Every structure is written in structure tokens, then in C-alpha cells.
Amino acid sequence: MKSSDQEIQKELAGTLLKIKSAPDMLDFLRGLLTTKELQKIPTRLRIVKLLKKTIPHQKIAKKLKVGVATVSRASKAIQEGHFKDVK
């Protein structure tokens, strides 16, 4: 990743951290993301939570109607140390 990309991502993270309420966050996300993108985020969070409960990939994929590759991508992110605060 280029350093300019990293700077932009840091700026985004800083902006997100300044948002103090759920309604304001939803308003921001609705303005930033397409409807389809916004719908995928909660599903991905559910995938992470189910993986942390050691539910098998195939079962998660079937339950949430997503591809096994999507579940595997979340699993890899967990192995890389992401989602430490998600339970």
C-alpha cells in the first residue's frame, strides 16, 4: 500500500473516531457508501463473530448466504490480528 493510501486511511479512521453517536455514524456511512456496501458490513461483522465462536466456515457461509471465500477472508484477517475487540 502506498503511503498516500495509508494517510488517507488514517484520515478516515480519525474522522470515524470523531463521530460520537450511532445516528450520526449511520448518517455518515449512508453518505459514504452505496446501499449494497452498507448492507455487507453487518454481514461481515457477523461472520467474524461466528468465526470467533469456532463455527465451521461452510456452516457460516450457508447460514449467512455468503461464499466460503468471504468467510475465509474474514478468517485470514482474524489470523493476521484484526478484530481483536470483536466478540
Q: Which helices and strands, and how do they pair?
A:
Elements: H1 3-18, H2 22-32, H3 35-52, H4 57-64, H5 68-79
Series of H and E elements: HHHHH
Largest beta-sheet characterization? none
Query: What is the approximate shape?
Result: globular
* Total number of beta strands: 0
Strand content: under 5%
Helix content: over 70%
First-residue to last-residue Cα separation: 28 Å
| Number of discrete helical segments | 5
- By secondary-structure content and strand pairing, the structural class works out as mainly alpha
The total domain count is 2
The poorly predicted ranges are none
What is the overall pLDDT average?
95
Features:
87 residues, 2 domains
Structural features, described:
The chain is mainly alpha-helical and 87 residues long. It folds into two domains: 1-32, no CATH class; 34-87. It is 75% helix and 0% strand. The chain contains five helices and no strands. Helix 3 crosses helix 5 (68-79). It starts with a helix and ends in an 8-residue tail after the last helix. The mean pLDDT is 95.
